[in-house]
Amino acid sequence: MNAKASHIKIVDCTIRDGGLVNNWDFSVGFVQHLYKCLNEVGIEYMEVGYKNSPKLLKNTDAAGPWRFLNDEFLRTVIPEKKNTKLSALVDIGRVDENDILPRGQSLLDLIRVACYIHQVDEALELVQVFHDRGYETTLNIMALSGVNENELMNAFEAIASSVVDVVYIVDSYGSLMPSDINALVEKFQTHLPNKRLGAHMHNNLQLAFANTVAAADKGVELLDASVYGMGRAAGNCPTELLIARMKNSKYRLGPVLDMIEKYMFPLREKEEWGYIIPYMITGMLGEHPRSAMALRNSADKDKIVDFYNRLTAPKASGGNSED
Amino acid sequence: MNAKASHIKIVDCTIRDGGLVNNWDFSVGFVQHLYKCLNEVGIEYMEVGYKNSPKLLKNTDAAGPWRFLNDEFLRTVIPEKKNTKLSALVDIGRVDENDILPRGQSLLDLIRVACYIHQVDEALELVQVFHDRGYETTLNIMALSGVNENELMNAFEAIASSVVDVVYIVDSYGSLMPSDINALVEKFQTHLPNKRLGAHMHNNLQLAFANTVAAADKGVELLDASVYGMGRAAGNCPTELLIARMKNSKYRLGPVLDMIEKYMFPLREKEEWGYIIPYMITGMLGEHPRSAMALRNSADKDKIVDFYNRLTAPKASGGNSED
């Protein structure tokens, strides 16, 4: 990586984005070991789950506790806070702002607000609330590959005058190439010169790491990753690759390998994510992976020729981040 | 990909490089179906094996026929030649030039000579022989990540005045980043302005596709790939990704998916390649994957922490391409 490691901060999303794979069924021991490892690696943020509200969502009963983080519960999991800060993600329309305590009463340091481009104004209102309660904030604009120029310019205007600390470029469908990332980062830098940037990539085309590196080389500061790439469908930029290739590194690889050996290998036997052809196909088509996820849960999971023929006839669209 | 598809030619290496995984144990039906698919996709070259000589190698008995291609046998496999040309790779010190028939008597169109930097003169002598027998030729310089500037400049001088058609940049250990590829391509273009270039990447750091795209965007013409990424250790740039992302494409994805569904999924159940942590570690360290391959063949195959600690204490080196 050309980028100096010094300006970079990593946000490990294993629990939050990985929870979309296993319905947040991580044991407390798993999360505690990950927190210990990330501290030893020197990673700056751990996104420990969603802070959405169960009353605003359907089908919530079976979900693990990392889907609806409870501040008291979190204190029992992490009785002693170390250097790695804690983050939670919220979705527009799924979070009750009254659930977010003032920062002084919570273990969380960072609240990230995920939205689609048409929800930016609503998202910035939430950002203002969380900012006023003392949190660091980010705005994560999803599904950028399908956004038109006019929408984006309007969003930039609102964002530029907001209090948000960091604005994320999110390749929700894993459809972007490094050249796309370069162009997007330049555009964000031009129109949001007073904002720090972040990048969250998906691995449908085996480009999550390359795209994250492209972003970092352009000056993007917050880099999302997850251990062994665990995340919805094709997963994310693998934390271990970022660490392995960080020049003049302040990070240590050993503890990530320990987490992979002890926890991720056994988990990958039970749960599926990564470079899997149906996810490649939705990535290539710039679509939400839901059709591919349904295929992988069916008896036809390996019928990729039929799947491709089906998807290249009609076309699906949109959704929300937790879908 | 920024690069126009028009200047690009793909060399599918599934049989040749994939043979390093399964000791070339591909059935005739497998190879025939692949040849049919590559023709339907519109891929320009199929590297159907090695043309080394069994008398120059040890431990050859169990190897499948694609390790020591026989021209008569090849005619029985491919009785009717179509648009996709056929290629074979040879290694310095392992090929008997008398085994290579004049092109008019062979199904092969392209002979590629693999060598390390110190073997370039010897390799160019072979290139001259094969060129004189009517073949297209390439020179594939392996393990470029460890080559010093002076060696490379001497090699360029010899190559520039040779008859070789295409010079390959080979990331044997899968240790290079897109920025490294950009710099290497520029250097090759500066010093070999009269030669076309090729790229052969390995996937240890999940960068084989990104690096191949980086090369193509810089003007590299011949792109090596293999179906479902099958190749030694971490494997190669997946053919399906190149096809999926080729702009204004002359290629069709469907037949690659058919090959994957019918042949590669079942094969991957029996044989192992791809993003596997020990290969990530050798890639990160810029080493030949042999230590990781040995680990994966042992009872300790998932003991990645011990493996990493062991490799970061002392250091191994070099080897030859078929090792």
UniProtKB/TrEMBL annotation, chains A, B:
Among Gene3D superfamilies, the record links this protein to: Aldolase class I
Annotated keywords: Manganese
Any GO BP: L-leucine biosynthetic process
Query: What's one GO MF term for it?
Result: 2-isopropylmalate synthase activity
Which InterPro entries does this entry report, sorted A to Z?
2-IPM_HCS-like, Aldolase_TIM, PYR_CT
Q: Where is the signal peptide?
A: none
Q: Where is the Pyruvate carboxyltransferase domain?
A: 8-261
Q: Which intervals of the chain form a coiled coil?
A: none
- By its UniProt entry, which PANTHER family does this protein fall under? 2-ISOPROPYLMALATE SYNTHASE 1, CHLOROPLASTIC-RELATED, HOMOCITRATE SYNTHASE-RELATED
Q: Quote the protein name from its UniProt record.
A: Nucleoid-structuring protein H-NS
Organism annotation: Paenibacillus beijingensis
